[in-house]
Amino acid sequence: MIEKDGLKAGDKIPSERELSERLNAGRSSVREALRALELLGLIETRRGEGTFIRDFRGNQLVQLLSTFILQDEKAKKDVIETKYLIEIDCLQTVLDKSDKGQIGRLKQWAIEHTYEDGEFFSRIAEFADNHLIFRIWEILKDYYHSLDLHDYQPTKQQYIDLAEALEKGDFELVLASYRKLRNLSA
Question: Tell me, what's the pLDDT at 111?
Fold first, then answer.
């Protein structure tokens, strides 16, 4: 319904009565669902004003879910591995879809700016031009950061090297640069 009505963060959602009618559900069920959504931080109720959609892209939901999901070491390793696999897939897709000019602009940006890992790979994921993969990567990135690993930090030169490897169009070179950036053995 949110998508169909084009609602976004800050928009008011219909009343319990209207939701009950539109969803063909009892008002008590709608009230219980709204309460659950509010506990998850997806909506907020303002007394006398109504119920509004919150911006739920932040870490709040991710941290809440990670409290329940990421309790064991295997789950943590799976998040890291999956994030890396998606990044590698995005790099391959960038090679397949992007033109030299776009990759050249990425390299120039990497040289001229200061950025964090997530910002660099966000650009890579955007260039891959697959909205679903981008959204999955963003969620995994948030989980990854919620793990607070304090792990290896790549140098700016390693990001530039990766952009240069992309510019050369050689996936084996891209993969080697990525592995070096992530401090992974071959």
Answer: 96
End-to-end CA, the chain:
47
| DSSP helix/strand/coil, 176 | helix
Closest CA to 31 of 6, 53, 51: 51
Burial class (CB in 10 A: 0-12, 13-18, 19+), 116: exposed
Q: What is the pLDDT of residues 157-176, one digit of tens each?
A: 999 999 999 999 999 999 99
Structure tokens that stand for 76 in this block: 């943590």
Q: What is the pTM of this model?
A: 0.64
- Chain position carrying tokens 């963003």: 138
Specify whether the CB–CB gap between 103 and 133 falls below 8 A. no
pLDDT > 60? residue 87: yes
User: E-strand spans in 7-108?
Assistant: 43-46, 50-53
Of 119, 105, 112, 118, the closest CA to residue 163 belongs to: 105
Query: Read out DSSP for 82-141?
Result: HHHHHHHHHHHHHHHH--HHHHHHHHHHHHH----HHHHHHHHHHHTT-HHHHHHHHHHH
Residues 152/80, Cβ–Cβ less than 8 Å: no
Residue 54: which pLDDT band, with cuts at 50, 70 and 90?
A: confident
